[in-house]
Amino acid sequence: MTGDVALLRGFAGDALVDDVARTAASAPFRHMVTPGGFRMSVAMTNCGPLGWVTDRKGYRYSAVDPESGQPWPAMPESFRELAYKAAREAGFAGFTPDACLINRYAPGAKMSLHQDKDERDFSQPLVSVSLGLPAVFLFGGLSRKDKVERVPLRHGDVVVWGGAARLFYHGIMPIKDGMHPLTGAFRFNLTFRRAQ
Ligand code: MD6
Ligand code: FE
Q1: Which ligand minimizes its atom distance to the CA of 115?
Q2: Which atom of ligand 1 is nearest to the CA of 170?
C-alpha cells in the first residue's frame, strides 16, 4: 500500500469488543438501504456525535439514530483513545473523530468498492479497526477501474489512511465462514471519521 496508508497489525485490544456490544445494546445493528434501493449485507450502527446513515434519500451524517429518533450513544473513551493513538502513530497528530461507524459482517457479507467522501475535510484521516473474523480488504486507487490490491485483515489490525489515499476506492470481499473466540461468527469494523 502507499505511504499514505499505515497498517498497524494487532494495534487494537480485545476490550473494544465489549464496547461494541454496549453500543449495540442502545443503538442496535440494522441493515440500511442504499439510495438505489438495495439492502446492505453489512449491518451497521454508530456512536459519537454523528453517525453515517443511508436510505432512499441518500448518504449523510445524522446526529440522531433514525430508528429511535435519539442521539447516537456516546463514543466510548476506549474508542476515542485508540483512534487518536493510531492516527498519531501514522503521522496524523491530534485526530479527534466526531463519528464512529460500526459495521457488522456475518459470513457472506461484503462491502462493494466505494469511496468515503461524505466528510467535510479530506485532509483528516480515516482510522479503521478490524475485530473478530478475518477479512480481505480491497484497496484500489482514485478511479474505480484502478488495479485493486488484496490485503488480509485480522482481529486487532488498524488501518490509518489519509493524504493521497484518502479518496481511494476500497471494499471488503465476502467474509468466509468461521468462529472467533471473542465475536463468534462475526467480523466488526469500526471506522472513525472527522465528519464535520
Ligand atoms: C471494512 N471499511 O473494513 C470497511 N472505509 O469493513 C471501510 O469501508 C473503510 O476500512 C474508510 C476507511 C477505512 C475503511
Ligand atoms: Fe469505506
Answers
A1: 2
A2: 8
Q: Is the dihedral of CA 106, 103, 59, 68 positive or negative?
A: positive
State yes or no: pLDDT of 1 exceeds 80: no
Per residue in 32-74, pLDDT (tens digit) is: 999 999 999 999 999 999 999 999 999 999 999 999 999 999 9
- Residue 64: count other Cβ atoms within 10 Å of its Cβ: 13
> CA-to-CA distance for 101 and 98, rounded, in angstroms?
10
Superfamily of domain 5-193: Alpha-ketoglutarate-dependent dioxygenase AlkB-like (2.60.120.590)
Contacts of residue 170, defined as CB under 8 A and 6 or more positions apart, other chains included, come to 113, 114, 115, 137, 138, 139, 140
Which residue, among 17, 161, 134, 123, has the nearest Cα to 79 in the 3D structure? 17
| Ligand 1 first shell, C-beta below 6 A | 103, 111, 116, 126, 128, 159, 170, 172, 189, 191
pTM for the predicted model, two decimal places:
0.96
Sign of CA dihedral 121, 122, 127, 133: positive
